[in-house]
Amino acid sequence: MSCGDPHETDCSEVLDHLYEFLDSEMPDVDRDKFQHHFEECSPCLEKYGLEQAVKKLVKRCCGHDDVPADLRAKVMGRIDLIRSGQAVPDHDVTATPQES
Question: Domain Putative zinc-finger spans what residues (predicted)?
C-alpha cells in the first residue's frame, strides 16, 4: 500500500514494522521517523489506527492471553469485508465444514 506521495520513510517499510511501532519495540529514532510519516500519510495513519483498535479490542476481550493468529485473521477479514462494502455473512465464512 502506498498513498503515491514520496516520503522520507516508505509506506511499505512503515507497514512492515507497524506492530513494532504499536508495541514500542523499536528504537526512538525509528519511532520518530514513523510518527513523522503518520503525520504526512493519511492511508498509513488510517491503517495504524485500525491496527491499534483491533489490538485494544483483542486485549480487552482476551485479557492477557496471547491472541490466536486465526482469531486475528478472522477479525481482520471481517473488517476488510465491511470496509470494502461487501455484505458480511451471518455465519463464520472461515470455518471448515466440520466446524460449522
Answer: 11-44
